[in-house]
Write a structure and sequence with these properties.
heterotrimer; A mainly alpha (293); B mainly alpha (282); C alpha/beta (266); C: 266 residues; alpha/beta; 6-stranded mixed beta sheet; 4-stranded antiparallel beta sheet; 11 helices
Chain lengths: 293, 282, 266
């Protein structure tokens, strides 16, 4: 029982980490809280769903396709909503408000056209077979989920640490004006970061959609609660913190569901968020110190 | 003529109630925006007020004035618990924590037997009338006008324009922040109690994300140059979907769009008049 | 014995290992004008931020009028008699000029929430007195006609004066002025010197950062010179002007200073 809960926790935790990564990346590099991020989670899952349903695309093709398409949507939204505010040097809460409005707009549009009924991947897309190790059951989809999550995180870390582009991203995170002076094409890097964040959010949506096989437009909104918890616990803008906080949240939720009450599972994140605010507002590794007022 | 008026008031009863309640909600958003902060917990505070009041009335049969006081006290306490630790942090933390509060309360309401789960509570007696609702709205407006035109109002506007400079003038920033949040929570809680006691039925989905963003759209449409702006915004956004039926189905899309347009293109809203900040003849 | 209004004691702040302010100590005596000068990047504004509570020192102590204020937030320092202006003016642009000055009086104007809501006589008389004093300050600044104008719409030089007026309104014991003459033309600068001399004669103690040497030499009783975050000299304008270390520090950056001075002329 414990082992199964831990495995379930790691699976959820990996997707939380993946989800929070894109969110915290946007905050850390672009210095905005982009609330449309939850929409990318839903959009990614919906696109993958339609690709598998209407074009019979295998999930291994639908997943990257939907993630890339969502990444492009994220770039367009950034260009329309946030670039004008950056140009005006608007206060940070302005970007929060504009993306909040856009989030309601987009969710409501999606709901108006496709409804709020829960939709499922076609059976062909999900491999129901499972491996059993002792008493622990892990389905092949779940292996795909964890594998994809870890692969994407590794890819992102390699990009950030090992490439010129990664250097440019880190320079932008430090100071946009200095980055510009150093010859960084700030507009291009901004769009790239939006793209990467969009794909991360979408990938998380697809993976969670696969895990629970339940997809509907508002799924991203419930996920945002976990996203807030993870990025605040990990420290706003801290990539390593988000990864670890994501795993911690997944594990604690699994244990709560198993040993306390499954209805309390979704409150764990918020409880941790409030405790973090009270006792360690700089987050796990204290990196968010620079973002204090 | 008075018969016509009585007819009118009767057939549009719930709409008129909404105007007053939404006006109060708009003011609850205003008081936080007026010091340059952003709280998105108004819908959650409203929900707390609504459930507190409904439970007190239904389960304990508590007297209505006491119910109203409790419906303001409970959200105020919630505001203290999540607001106090964010006082020394950037405004982003308060915004995120308050959206989170809304989500988690919705989950709690849905999962608790006490609150009737997803079905909510029904059979709440109609105890709030026009006089009470609009009386409170008027009182709140007058109070805001009086406070605006004083040392406190000047400190609030100073904080909204430049918090660092306001701090350098000796404005006790944490005290202003927490006071604004608590007042905001109390107003929203009161609006929630009214809502419960005019509509006889409440459910968790009335106080979710959509409601939170809609309340923000009231304030941004009207503009926050004066306390009147948000109330005007609330009236317009409550009436418009009733007048323009096709808009009704896309009400939320429209509210979201209003926020986007207001932030990008009309930061002063549609009531550009700015309230003066002196409490005597200048 | 310590009769100084402001005392810095081994004040140090490091950003990632680099000391922006390095073990700086000096005292500002009451009713004097004290200059803080040094080439660009010497740590002057950083020191100002530490004194006003907008940053926290890594080491050292700050004493203001007898109290150690090391851990005080900026608003508490302001309540204890500190006021400042900023290098890039931080006006409340939407407010009128008069309202800006009134905002400056925040600490001294009476009127709790109850008195405000009930418009008690105590509130009304406090407001009327504040407004009268506000008009007096605007007159002192030469901005009497601008009282109802939006501060953000005032010409640059007037905004500078208004920001000083807003700081003055708090009746400070010590006023920090960060490059008050920056961006001003010679006649505006002359007007500013005259304004600051009148401030001094009112008994306000001033600590100011300024690049304009003519300005500094005319106004200051005492000058502290920083270079690379360290104090390299202190004394009267005459002493400092002839100090070889100061000359060396400035000569080293003379070309850059000239270029910058040229760029600042509007």
């Amino acid at each position: 029982m414990l082992a199964q809960q831990l495995v379930n926790g790691i699976i959820s935790g990996a997707t939380y980490a993946l989800f929070a990564l894109g969110f915290t990346l946007m905050f850390g590099v672009l210095n905005v809280v982009n609330l449309t991020y939850g929409v990318y989670f839903s959009t990614g899952a919906l696109i993958a769903l339609y690709a598998t349903r209407h074009f019979a695309a295998p999930i291994l093709i639908a997943l990257p396709l939907a993630a890339i398409a969502t990444g492009l949507i994220a770039v367009v939204i950034d260009g329309l909503l946030l670039t004008p505010l950056r140009r005006k040097k608007a206060p940070e809460l302005a970007s929060l408000m504009v993306t909040l409005g856009a989030t309601l707009l987009l969710y409501s549009l999606m709901t108006a056209f496709i409804g709020t009924d829960i939709q499922r991947f076609p059976p062909a897309a999900i491999d129901p077979s499972a491996i059993e190790v002792g008493s622990v059951r892990i389905s092949r989809s779940q292996i795909l989920i964890v594998g994809t999550a870890f692969a994407m995180v590794a890819l992102l870390l390699a990009l950030m640490r090992g490439t010129r582009l990664g250097l440019a991203i880190r320079a932008l995170a430090e100071n946009p004006d200095v980055a510009r002076l150093m010859g960084v094409d700030v507009t291009l890097v901004t769009f790239f970061v939006s793209f990467v964040s969009g794909t991360l959010g979408a990938a998380a949506g697809i993976l969670i959609g696969l895990n629970y096989n339940a997809i509907q437009p508002y799924m991203g909104e419930a996920m945002m609660l976990k996203g807030f918890a993870v990025i605040i616990i990990g420290g706003l803008g801290d990539i390593r913190g988000a990864l670890i906080a994501g795993l911690i949240l997944g594990l604690l939720e699994g244990l709560t569901a198993g040993y306390v009450a499954s209805t309390l599972k979704d409150a764990v994140g918020f409880l941790l968020l409030v405790l973090t605010l009270w006792f360690r507002p700089v987050g796990l590794f204290g990196r968010a110190a620079a973002k204090r007022a | 003529m008075s018969e016509f008026l009585a007819d009118f008031l009767f057939s549009y009863q719930s709409l008129i109630h909404s105007l007053g309640i939404n006006g109060l909600l708009a003011l609850s958003m205003y008081v936080v925006l007026a010091i340059g902060q952003l709280s998105l917990g108004q819908a959650a505070f409203m929900g707390l007020g609504a459930y507190t009041s409904a439970l007190l009335t239904l389960k304990l049969g508590a007297p209505f004035p006491l119910v109203l006081i409790a419906s303001m006290a409970v959200p105020a306490l919630a505001a203290l618990i999540i607001g106090a630790p964010t006082l020394r942090l950037s405004g982003v933390y308060l915004a995120l924590a308050t959206i989170g509060l809304g989500e988690v309360l919705r989950i709690a309401f849905v999962n608790s037997e006490l609150t009737g789960g997803a079905l909510g509570l029904s059979g709440i007696p109609e105890k709030a009338g026009y006089a009470l609702i609009f009386g409170c709205l008027a009182l709140a407006l007058i109070a805001f006008v009086l406070v605006s035109r004083s040392r406190i109002g000047r400190a609030m506007e100073a904080m909204r324009e430049d918090e660092v400079a306001a701090g350098m003038l000796g404005v006790h920033l944490p005290r202003y922040r927490i006071s604004a949040l608590v007042v905001s929570a109390m107003l929203a809680g009161l609006a929630g109690a009214f809502n419960a006691h005019v509509s006889s039925f409440i459910s968790p989905n009335d106080y979710g994300f959509d409601a939170a963003v809609t309340i923000l759209s009231y304030a941004l449409l009207g503009g926050i140059g004066s306390p009147f702006g948000p109330v005007v915004g609330a009236i317009i956004l409550t009436l418009l979907p009733e007048v323009l039926r096709p808009l009704h189905d896309f009400r939320l899309v429209f509210n979201g769009l209003i926020i986007v347009i207001a932030v990008l293109f009309m930061p002063h809203g549609i009531v550009p008049w700015r309230i003066g900040r002196t409490g005597a003849r200048a | 014995m310590n009769g100084a209004l402001l005392t810095l004691e081994n004040l140090t702040v490091r950003f990632g290992g680099l000391a922006a302010v390095d073990s700086v100590s000096f005292r500002v005596e009451p009713q004097t004008v004290h200059g803080l000068i040094g080439p660009n990047g010497a740590g002057k504004t950083t020191a100002f931020n530490l004194i006003s509570g907008l940053g926290h020192q890594s080491e050292g102590h700050i004493r203001l009028d007898g109290e150690t204020i090391d851990d005080w937030p900026s608003w508490q320092r302001a309540q204890h008699g500190l006021a400042r202006t900023f290098q890039n003016i931080r006006m409340f642009g939407e407010m009128t000029a008069l309202e800006n000055v009134l905002a400056g009086m925040h600490v001294h104007v009476g009127g709790g929430l109850g008195a405000t809501l009930l418009r008690l006589k105590s509130f009304r008389s406090a407001e009327a007195a504040a407004i009268a004093k506000g008009h007096e300050i605007l007159g002192f600044l030469g901005l009497a006609d601008a009282s109802t104008r939006r501060a953000g719409n005032l010409p640059y030089g007037d905004q500078r004066r208004l920001e000083i007026g807003r700081a003055l309104a708090s009746d400070p014991k010590l006023m920090l002025l960060d490059e008050p003459a920056a961006g001003m033309n010679p006649s505006e600068t002359a007007g500013l010197i005259e304004l600051l001399l009148r401030l001094k004669s009112r008994g306000v103690t001033l600590l100011l950062v300024e690049h304009d040497m003519h300005f500094i030499m005319n106004l200051c009783d005492r000058i502290t010179v920083l270079n690379f975050g360290r104090k390299i000299a202190e004394g009267t304008p005459l002493e400092v002007r002839s100090d070889p270390k100061v000359i060396e520090a400035y000569l080293g950056t003379k070309v850059a200073e000239r270029l910058e001075a040229g760029a600042r002329v509007r």
